[in-house]
Amino acid sequence: MLITHIRQNFAAAFFPRLSEWSCASCLLALGFMLSKNPDLMSTSKTQAYQLMQMIATQSTWAAVMKAFALIRLTILLVNGAWRRSPHLRSVSAFLTCFFWTQITLSFLPTFGFAFIFALWILLQDFANSVRAARDARIVDHAYAKGGTTGGQD
Question: Exposure pattern of 53-80 as b/e (b: 16+ CB <10 Å)?
Fold first, then answer.
């Protein structure tokens, strides 16, 4: 019964939030990539990672990206399986914009494909934050009117 409940609710929440899942999964993949390629930032021919290295080491970036992505994926899983959590979704998407901003600014000097890809993901995650904030407003309004489901059934 519990697995059926999770499956039904998860499926209903996954596709409307596909871009949130995509951005969080991409951040997790970047964290793993930085872990598996430990000298990427130091041996880059373009010095594209210089800005990020001024903030933290590559291993620190890898660990923080993986941790934050796993937290965000957990928030999305809980949102889809048990309880609606648009407030947490909005905050986590907004905070993830920090990573995308650093990556985008790091690739700005080369102004190539990586810059455009990073900028696109930054804009997508900012839009995710705004959309989740709108969902949060709907939930808050429904609860204020006495609803028990937050208007998300």
Answer: beeeebeebbebbbebbeebbebbbbbb
Task: Please state whether the predicted TM-score (pTM) of the whole model is above 0.70.
Answer: yes
Q: How many CB atoms are located within 10 Å of the residue 133 CB? A: 17
What is the C-alpha separation between 47 and 106, in angstroms, rounded? 8
- Indicate whether 38 pLDDT > 50: yes
Q: Which of 96, 79, 64 is nearest to 11 (CA)?
A: 79
What is the residue type of 122?
L
Report how far residue 56's alpha carbon sits from residue 35's, in angstroms, rounded to the nearest whole number.
Answer: 14
| C-alpha span between 82 and 91 (Å, rounded) | 19
pLDDT the model gives residue 40: 86
- The position carrying tokens 């709108």 is 134
Higher pLDDT, 81 or 51: 51
